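=== RUN LOG ===
request id: a7f3
mode: sequence -> structure
chains: 1
length: 130
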Amino acid sequence: MLTVMQDTEHERGRPPAKAPEGRVTLKDAAALAGVSYATAYRRATSGEIAHWRDGAGVISILSADVDKIYLRPGSDNPRPAISVRPDEKTSAAFARAAGKLPVSRWLMDLGIAEVERLAGVKRAKRKRAR
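=== RESULT ===
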């Protein structure tokens, strides 16, 4: 059996959102541009595209700005950035080792020291904040 989905906003008792003349709702703009609503929302709220929010909270943009919403091409960098989040035990060990320093600063200093060690750079030892 086929089920037809209706507009959920209308089902909740609200009329479908309409933009003023010369504008389109962000939801409609995203559909026209072939991107997700989240992508369109990021472009609007970052200031890349002028937008307006009405009293009901509906965001609209100029119809002419729909073509400014697009997916950005991926990076050509063959070595993409990675982010590593240690498990709780490792994170606690880092915090203990860092002492009063923020863990991010301690890890950066540790990395710099290792690079200098590998490069054969000799530096005077710095005192750590305690």
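=== NOTES ===
The chain is about 40% helix and 10% strand.
Helices lie at 8-11, 26-33, 37-45, 88-98, 103-119.
=== END ===
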